[in-house]
Write a structure and sequence with these properties.
Blueprint (H helix, E strand, L loop, with lengths): L4 H6 L7 E6 L3 E9 L5 E6 L8 E2 L2 E3 L4 E3 L1 H9 L4 E2 L12 E3 L2 E3 L1 H20 L5 E6 L4 H14 L6 E4 H12 L7 E7 L4 E8 L6 E10 L4 H15 L7 H4 L3 H17 L5 E6 L5 E6 H25 L7 E7 L6 H11 L3 E3 L7
Length: 359
């Protein structure tokens, strides 16, 4: 979500829109914002996948062009050496990707994915966005952020705003529930591959939310770890592991489909007390998974994320009592146990957006 006050004025006629793009470790998403006839700002997610609002952050590097998302995953089944994943984690690395005969720098791949999202929006909306906003991790720092800015400039998107994902989330929250001057807001971002936490304080004189202290993160915590835990639990139930030949040597499409079923099961348990995962490897069958089982598996992970949040709060020199709220973003923050544990530990209002992975 972005601050669209000035950007929507640039395209004053109705129908113009601002596009925001987030290239995450495992998923990429986009949203549009436009001014309504009543003067309000209407923001909504834009579908990037064939059946979902988000799509894998995967890029297939062909001889002359790149494919993104679902199309990249499908093409990568036949040519896995050309399929790039988790590009965000490579930004700042001076070593290029080698895909076939092509060498491409990570920042250029990232920028190409943004350009694809812009092209998708143009096709769906019938015109160009009046502004493009790209979100990046809070922990990147100036060097990696500038690499992305330069890469965007090289492909004609140099005018795009680049802001951190937690800052974008805080702006969205501030537009609905303004933080009181002198008070603070903590952002708990449980994304697909990385956990980030940051505290922002409302400046008394300027009235703006500003970074307080140093952001804290854990590169080995995220939704992907939860997905792996669910997959391991499902395989265990049918007497297998990820190293069993029935899974390890299964066709890539079959293994990917089972992993997708486990991800769907994790997401379903945010709204239902139990679900069934069809097992399409080995002897086949199905595995019943309950919300309680999922919560038992992930509680140690949530404990670790809360320890990281504590580091961010301590760095900001903020007493938890001075937090107006703890804002949960990232797809896996939708799991009910996450909000419960955070509320129990910090005793502060916990806010979960209706669509936290696309906030």
């Amino acid at each position: 979500m972005v601050d669209t006050e000035q950007t929507t004025r640039k395209g004053a006629k109705m129908g113009t829109f601002v596009l925001a793009v987030d290239i995450g470790t495992s998923r990429m998403s986009a949203a549009t914002a436009r001014r309504t006839a009543a003067g309000d700002i209407d923001a909504s997610t834009m579908a990037l996948g064939r059946a979902r609002d988000t799509t894998p952050s995967s890029v297939f590097v062909g001889d002359t062009a790149m494919l993104f998302g679902d199309a990249a995953e499908r093409r990568g089944l036949a040519q896995p050496d050309r399929l790039l994943r988790a590009v965000v984690g490579r930004i700042g690395d001076d070593v290029p990707y080698l895909a076939g005969e092509r060498r491409v720098m990570p920042a250029d791949v990232f920028a190409a994915a943004v350009a694809w999202a812009v092209d998708t929006a143009r096709e769906r909306e019938g015109n160009d966005p009046v502004e493009v906003v790209v979100t990046v991790p809070m922990t990147w720092g100036a060097y990696r952020t500038e690499l992305v800015r330069s890469a965007l400039d090289r492909i004609g998107l140099g005018a795009a705003q680049v802001m951190t994902a937690p800052d974008a989330a805080a702006r969205e929250y501030e537009s609905v529930s303004p933080v009181r001057p002198g008070r603070a807001l903590a952002v708990y971002d449980l994304g697909g591959g990385v956990f980030e936490s940051v505290v922002l304080r409302k400046d008394r004189s300027s009235g703006r939310l500003q970074l307080a202290g140093t952001p804290a993160s854990a590169d080995d915590l995220g939704g992907a770890e939860i997905d792996d835990a669910v997959l391991a639990r499902v395989l265990r139930s049918v007497g297998l592991t990820t190293r069993s030949p029935e899974f390890d040597e299964a066709p890539a499409l079959t293994a990917a489909a089972l992993r997708r079923e486990c991800i769907d099961a994790k997401e379903a348990l945010s709204f239902d007390s139990e679900t069934v995962v069809p097992v399409i490897v080995g002897a086949g069958g199905s595995v019943r998974l309950t919300r309680g089982e999922l919560e038992s598996m992930i509680e140690p992970m949530i404990e670790r994320t809360m320890d990281v949040l504590v580091r961010a709060i301590e760095s900001a020199r903020v007493d938890p009592a001075d937090l107006d709220a703890i804002l949960l973003v990232g797809g896996s923050s939708r799991i009910p146990r996450v909000a419960q544990m955070i509320s129990e530990r910090f005793d502060r209002p916990v806010v979960v957006d209706l669509d936290p992975k696309a906030i």
